[in-house]
Design brief:
Elements: E1 3-11, E2 14-23, E3 26-35, E4 39-49, H1 53-68, H2 88-100, H3 107-118, H4 122-131, H5 145-150
Helix pairs in contact: 3-4
């Protein structure tokens, strides 16, 4: 049984083409990657018996996943203001904005909106809300002194 599969993927400015051909008990994988700005960036062929494809696929997956972790050009999904210190004015504005939401608004929706507006991650907004005396589970609500004490926070002066 003979067959050919082709798959194309683009990453940034590079287009990769993988062609897999099976014929007479042999599997051939041809990989070619090129970019208009960099020219050919990947080119190679692997030939193996069809009977070894499952183990080879596992081996390649593990090797490429490990190698991908060292890709210094890969950007993580970090927000532009990630790790930037919070100012008192930003805390005050966040607290005021949180209080404008109705309690019926889903907390995840409110937190995502606040994160987008501040170019921060939703996780950082959620953490900051409790630090400034807001209940991160209920939009518009401030922490009571009792609740703040339970989670190890102090409520700021109102």
């Amino acid at each position: 049984m003979a067959f050919t599969l082709e798959h194309t993927a683009t990453h940034r400015t590079t287009t990769y083409r993988l062609t897999v051909t099976a014929d007479a008990g042999q599997l051939t994988l041809d990989l070619h990657g090129s970019s208009e700005t960099e020219g050919v960036v990947a080119d190679g062929t692997i030939r193996l018996p069809v009977s070894g494809t499952a183990e080879t696929a596992r081996l390649l997956t593990r090797a490429l996943t490990a190698a991908g972790a060292f890709d210094s050009t890969r950007k993580r999904g970090t927000a532009p203001n990630s790790h930037a210190p919070w100012t008192q004015d930003q805390d005050t504005a966040l607290r005021a904005d949180w209080q404008t939401y109705k309690e019926t608004t889903p907390a995840t929706t409110a937190i995502r909106e606040l994160a987008t507006a501040r170019q921060r991650s939703p996780g950082s907004i959620r953490a900051r809300l409790s630090r400034i005396g807001c209940d991160p589970d209920v939009p518009g609500r401030l922490l009571t002194p009792e609740t703040a004490e339970l989670i190890g926070r102090t409520t700021p002066a109102r």
